[in-house]
Amino acid sequence: MSLSDMPTDLAVPPYLLHPLIPTISPGDVSCAQALGSEVYVGCTNGELIRYALQVEPDSTTQESYSLLSRQSLPNGKPIDELVLVPYMSRVLILSDRQIHFYTLPSLDPVPNIKPIRHVETFAVDFCVIKRNSIALHSLYEDRLVYSREIPFQPGALLARRAGQYLCVADSQYYNVVDLHTAQMFPVIPVNQAMDDLTPVKPFIVVVGENEFLLLSRTGGSTLGVFVTGEGDPVRGTLEWPSHPLSVCLDYPNITTLLSNGTIEIHSVETQSIIQVVSPPPDGDTVADQRIGLVASLGGYIVPFSEHSEKMRKTTLRFDRN
């Protein structure tokens, strides 16, 4: 579907781009998450930064996020992934092939849970993919309980779990593992352009209890294929003019960041483009740093001073019966 096919009768677009934190220094941002009135940022220098929304007593002053704490991981290595687990007040941090466990929101190390080592990637709930195996654990507030291991092939780059199915990507294929039967089968290639040996970043998005979205590069474009845990295709396909830098789900929409800074939003239900956020203008140094998108499932607060200007009076009709 071309961009010209987008609906033009939307009075208010589904998404607005709004700055939360103007600058972060000294480390470069490698990952981030947000929940409620707080934002958590992982950096390439191993720093873990926490911001909180400050409520201004003066109603004329806009609320803003301010630095609340800054700390470094014990190993001082880049933070690769940061996952919030709000229902048990925990933060999982992947760094230097280790998963560290911290409390939420204070970011204190959980005293009774040691880091898990030799991690290639992981998926909540709670599968740790190591070089030659998939280790299954149960995570509780004060302990981590090992369950069992499933033999697995080396080379895992990314993993996501939906129910009893674990989808794991290596450099060549997306594979699905049935955790009940320990059976694995390949689904689709990560890169279908056989004459192009350029490494392609895999993306796996959990759409539902038994559904994944997998991105497969075809050469001139990238396709998004919806599959079940059994590997069967469902819905239609999505398509992008280039391989995205980042993909996330905000159901019923899929949001993607392209290499030129454009953000495209597709409908999961219709697979059509419903909005395009244009790339930043030349010379816009802040917007030029669009490096990724993150879905914050628990939701977070965005201070916005223009809400009163956007409100409109609407006539409501009541049934008097």
Automatic annotation (TrEMBL):
GO terms for biological process: autophagy; endosomal vesicle fusion; protein transport. InterPro entries: CNH_dom (IPR001180), Vam6/VPS39/TRAP1 (IPR032914). PROSITE patterns: CNH (PS50219). Signal peptide: none annotated. SUPFAM superfamilies: Tricorn protease domain 2. Keywords: Cytoplasm, Protein transport, Transport. PANTHER family: CNH DOMAIN CONTAINING, TRANSFORMING GROWTH FACTOR-BETA RECEPTOR-ASSOCIATED PROTEIN 1. This is CNH domain-containing protein. It comes from Boletus reticuloceps. The lineage of its organism: Eukaryota, Fungi, Dikarya, Basidiomycota, Agaricomycotina.
